[in-house]
Amino acid sequence: MDDLLSEFLTETNENLSVLDVELVRLEQNPNNPELLSNIFRLVHTIKGTCGFLGLPRLEKVAHASENVLGKFRDGELTINPEAVSLILQALDTIKSLLAVLEATEAEPPGDDLPLIERLNLCAEGKLGSGAAPAKPAPAPEPPPAPAVAAAEVAPASSGNLTLDELEAIWNSTPGPTSTALAPVAAEPAEEPAPSHDLVVPDPDPVPAAAKMPAPAADAASGAGAGGEAATKESAVAAQTIRVNVDLLENLMTMVSELVLTRNQLLQILRSQKESEFAAPLQRLNHVTSELQEGVMKTRMQPIGNAWAKLPRLVRDLSHELGKKIDLQMLGADTELDRQVLELIKDPLTHMVRNSADHGLEVPADRVRSGKSETGRITLNAYHEGGHIIIEIQDDGKGLAIDRIKQKAIQNGMASEGELAAMSDQQIIQFIMKPGFSTAAKVTNVSGRGVGMDVVKTNIEKIGGTIEIKSQQGKGSTFVIKIPLTLAIVSALIVECAGERFAIPQISVVELVRAAADSEHTIERLKGTPVLRLRNRLLPLVSLQELLRLDDQEGGEKKTDETFIVVTQVGTYTFGIMVDRVFDTEEIVVKPVAPILRHIEMFSGNTILGDGSVIMILDPNGIASATGEMAMGETASKEATSVQATRQEDKMALLLFRAGAGAPKAVPLSLVARLEDVDLASVESSNGMPVVQYRGKLMPLVPIDPGFMIGQEGRQPVLVFADGDRSMGLIVDEIVDIVEERLVVQLTADRPGLMGSAIIAGKATDVLDAGFFLTQAYKDWFGSSSTDAYEEERALQRVLLVDDSPFFRNLLTPLLSVAGYDVTAVENANEALALCEAGEDFDVIVSDIEMPGMSGFDFAEAVRQGGTRWSGTPMVALSSHASPRDLDRGRQAGFTDYVAKFDRDALLYALQQTLSEQKGAA
Amino acid sequence: MSNAKLPATTKKSKGDEITSGGSQDYVTMTIADQLFGIPVLQVQDVLGHQRITRIPLAPPEVAGSLNLRGRIVTAIDVRLRLGLTSRPKDKPGMSIVVDLRGELYSLMVDSVGEVLSLSNDDFERNPATLDPRWREVSTGIYRLNGQLMVVLDVPRLLNFTTMEAA
């Protein structure tokens, strides 16, 4: 079954059972607004999801129910048992539809008009409203009153109904008819109280469905589907189990305890030379590690999981609203705690929906205001300091301050006078208030005012904040900041004055050892320590002074050696002085106790593998405590270094030996790590040697296909990694790292080699890393063929724009081998800077999905700007190559469009483009 | 490490009101030769000497944090909290772990005594002349044979000025 669908089924079934209970409670406490709004939101969610999944029948029923609930919420209708049973009936209908949906993966044909009509009547207040008596039978208005009872009484009065109507009613009241029948029949004669009976038996349709002996042919199919659904349901349930997060949390605590005990045992073991416990303890050790990792994993999920539904949602929205929408998602693999993920899933969906519905304009309006027809929504997630930041950005019309003001006055949230005194930022905050919606009309999509207040409550529940930035006509940005609580981060452990601290690895740029005898020494400017680092002055912060640590370990200060942790916060780089640097460790960030939360130097604390508690330093806090100096200066320095990435500059190359022949080289930037693999740990999987590496299987690929891996000893391995995957290339010996200009002199016809170049004065084979990547994973690139490209070798200049360093580094050598002079830049702005700097290129190859300016915008900028490049052909590189994208690319000004991982196609396209260009010239 | 774990109760109701008649159970402890008591239901654990990680920049009463079976517990030096001098270094001391709004705190004391069931008739309000610092953290005094026991109010004990700054 479609993942989306099965998830929808699980979720909706859960929501429905909650609704059953909540509705009954609501009936008992009609004046509980919290209960009501919760019900409303649940129904709203069901309706929304049905809409996006293209389930019109379900959606209609849910929509009609939501209308009724909306009236309740606005106080236009009073809550009475009839209306509640009507809504419960609607829920039952939804349940039965879901059962069929689960069995057949399609909605059953037909509609639920009678039910919807009754719901609409109810919403209009013509049914059981206001002072209408609780009993349906003596209701004053004859037509609607029997309608209420129709469902319950239907079988009794079936004589008056046609077979079709009967079937419709059958559909709308799947099971409980038989159960509900008795009290209903008895009811009119009795006092009003039993009207509750109408409601109470309803919520559980399953036993009722089972009771049905399927008398008529029509009924048989329905009941059959129901029975099937019951068995199917258990099948779905067997694949995934929903576990309470508290349970996982407990498990995690227990496992941590187990780890500590294990560590103690190992400690004892180490002190004993020979012990019969050694082997079992070793096994315990492994099992415990795996258990710990497994339990940790149960909690962590990439944020992409919460986004999985969004492309579909946006696609459907764009059809429904007649808008062109381009959704970009960046940082989908940012991991966060499952609990946090669950809680932000709905808010994110709401916000994307809002951006699409309220934010973006219709194409005509966009064109009028000089924007491209296609609106863009960008989702971006990343770690920053101790937080996860999620940005939802649209390039629509921005928040309409005037409309918000009007609406605020209309809803009595503020007076005109009060509003006049408010800043725009304060006015924007109104959209977070319950019951607020500026959409002119209530659409199917949004505009009921459930959105932003839910978003805000949910985010605040997990201790996050939400910030809105809006620029009239330019679009709006929502920035959600969630604390990193429980998220696992890699941290560097350092020591200062006898205390250990953890620094999140993510903000550590490099480590420098400063000592009298090393090339780096700490100098002082009026007492302020600074360090000369690569011709720049790095401000230093002494952790000991900052934390006011007094040396407990006696007065023996090791002033002769200091380690400097070069840390980057935003654009501010500074060094933290520490006494010692230990290893990096994966840690689970736990919040500090409330009495310590005011200390901004710490983002949390954690328990290390050896069981000790350690404080986690917050680089942001340290940066702001020491003053954010030199911000502007650093930024401008960075800008001038754009040219540094030019291909003409030297490139770091890793030299190594493998097999016979010349030494081999590979660009160092392609190599993620150098490892030394114990050959005893090499296993075989799928006929390929693999090794367990950081909890994953990493295939090992020899350079020479005939190479046999030994059984013992250690073997150096170059680890190539991209995203989740890694591959180990077996080499004999790592020789050196040199900086050279890579000029491939001879192309090779051997697969796996790009050619030969003079490196460090010797003829060296340059490795084609791509070839080996495809050896490990067939699908690493679209194509795995590695023919030599011997086309015209006149040096044509190519500008490569790609945000991924991996692909930049991969394509640069590839293209230079193919005879192009390549200049690689990281983003469109840098490319445009080169244009202004007067550079010329024969062809521009650009990625589409880039942060900041996208490839489309870049192409438009190049084409429309009337720049010197306006005639330069452009080739788009993208992982999405649908016909729609192709069209869009052409419109934006791209000459050709190539799927990102298809190297052959890229080279072919370049060749075509350039020869066309020549022909035209 | 002597971990005398008390009956396993995960969620404890705090500060049962003392009513006349009947009796209350207290865990007793001594700090600077004075007997103190905490309602037994608020106590999670009794610990021996622990390795404590210092927390720089924290209030002086916060001795540091420690790891209790995978949970991070904030250690409070009750002596400093009560305005006494800190414990001499050569005495190891003991700790009582309490739960306050889901967070665990370890109260460092000189020694932990026994669990006493005390009759409410022996309970008395704080004398008006008691040191204000003590009055702030105590709910009252029990008259025992030969000595007096000060009842500590855990939430107030942990509510030092900086606490609400969070």
Characterise the protein shown here.
The complex is a heterodimer of chains A (921) and B (166). With 921 residues, chain A is an alpha+beta fold. Chain A has 30 helices and 35 strands. In chain A, the strands form seven sheets. A six-stranded mixed β-sheet of chain A has the order 10-14-15-13-12-11. In chain A, helix 1 (3-28) packs antiparallel against helix 4 (81-104) and helix 12 (245-271) packs antiparallel against helix 13. The longest helix of chain A is centred in the first third of the chain and has 27 residues, at 245-271. Chain A is globular and about 90 Å long. Chain B has 166 residues and is mostly beta strands. Chain B is 8% helix and 43% strand. A six-stranded mixed β-sheet of chain B has the order 1-4-7-8-6-5. In chain B, strand 7 and strand 8 form a beta hairpin. Chain A: It is an enzyme of class 2 (transferase). Chain A: Residues 207-222 have a biased composition (Low complexity). Chain A: Residues 170-179 have a biased composition (Polar residues). Chain A: Residues 170-226 are annotated as: Disordered. Chain A: InterPro entries: Bact_Chemotaxis_CheA, CheA-like_dim, CheA-like_homodim_sf, CheW-like_dom_sf, CheW-lke_dom, CheY-like_superfamily, HATPase_C_sf, HATPase_dom.
List key phrases describing it.
heterodimer; A: 921 residues; alpha+beta; Four Helix Bundle (Hemerythrin (Met), subunit A); Helix Hairpins; Heat Shock Protein 90; 6 domains; six-stranded mixed β-sheet; 30 helices; globular; B: 166 residues; mainly beta; OB fold (Dihydrolipoamide Acetyltransferase, E2P); 3 helices; 12 strands; 8% helix; disordered N terminus; disordered C terminus
